[in-house]
Amino acid sequence: MNRKAVLIVDDEADIRELLVLTLSRMGVDADTASSVAEAQEALKQRAYDLCLTDMRLPDGDGLAVLRHIAENYGNTPVAVITAYGSTDNAVAALKAGAFDYLAKPIKIEQLRPIVVSALKLPRPVHARRASIGEVPPPGTPRLLGESPAIQKAREMIGKLARSQAPVYITGESGSGKEVAARAIHMGSARAAEPFVAVNCGAIPENLMESEFFGYKRGAFTGADSDREGFLQAAQKGTLFLDEVGDLPLAMQVKLLRVIQEKKVRRVGDTVEENLDVRIISATHRNLSEQVEAGAFRQDLFYRLSVIELRMPALREVPEDIPLLVEQLLARLAKQAGAPVATIGEDAMLALRRYDFPGNVRELENILERALALCSNNTLHESDLYLTQATPRGEKSGAIADGSLGTRGLPLHDFLDQVEREVITKALEATRYNKTAAAKLLGITFRSLRYRLDRLGID
Ligand SMILES: Nc1ncnc2c1ncn2[C@@H]1O[C@H](COP(=O)(O)OP(=O)(O)OP(=O)(O)O)[C@@H](O)[C@H]1O
What we know:
This protein is an alpha/beta fold. 45% of the residues lie in helices and 13% in strands.
């Protein structure tokens, strides 16, 4: 077997010795260098699976080593050793592409997981063109789309998969933030470990602490056995904090501490546990505005938003719509065990003009509903029920025909007409089973009955 090799760059002999010793106990070859120049020389001699470098070196800094490796030895991960309490250095290194950082004084229990993770990354063979994130293992969610913006996001995901840096994903609701987070996890050295997704807005405030940190039996009334929290559940893996802006301030303080110390303590427990979790957070709100308004802690934002990944809104990438429609229809057909539906030109044109406030999720929903309501497995514009009055682009055209898309009817009559059509189709699709039709329409049985009366549908 090929032994893994690590290059240690530090000017302090004690630290080099400690690291060499620890790494050889882990069955890894460790070479050492005490300056940027020596590191460059060592790198010429052999291929390394990881470089651990101190930030302060006699002839430059750790970032110089990082840059040299990035330019010449592409995918070799670099972890930097930062001075005690120097958050800025750690963040700067992560932003510059470091795999992870290790704070001084070096603790073996924090060094090990970094080395283990880094060594799980595939060896950087120069002939290998695709990086780890670009060859997703089976079961990885695919971020569909070929527009430059989506390609850029995919490329970034590939890079982020090779690092342990916290990632902060922004984008509108339904734009694929969770898909992106999963793809980063699945492309990373943590792929075999858990991916735990938490919607921070959905947890009642009084349960938040025990949900995140877990608790010991007897910690409070009702705690009749030990329970792990999200943090322990994500151990060695990735914790995805969706709608992170919804975390209450008290929880933000606790989370910051966990991130800084890499330790967690259950509610009612006296001992702390080491924590090795990568955090990916997301929000569809503007977190910097929340910081300014005092609703989100600046220091936590700084730690979470080390690297930002922005997911484009669907209306920014209209060229992807035909491809998305095609692939989503194929997926929906497969799920239903039905033949793939055909889409008429009128429907495609309408979709291309639509604004998609709910992004890809909304497109999925529109197609799913249209499939249930269309005839002959062919989707036409009238099956889509796009209710927007001002479609994107060609706005003037829509207004020029004087109808604003209301078929020339007053708004009220137009809406009644649409409602009648949708309800009739739903009834036809369910063979006039009102309960099933109401379900299909996402309304209650009572509401359907009321509407049938109002519209005079028999
Ligand atoms: N580019 C894409 N390719 C394929 N599917 C996508 C894409 N973007 C979004 N989706 C799909 O849209 C739905 C919503 O995606 P996701 O949950 O990742 O969005 P989100 O940005 O996290 O939404 P929210 O802010 O509401 O949590 C999912 O079913 C997902 O599969």
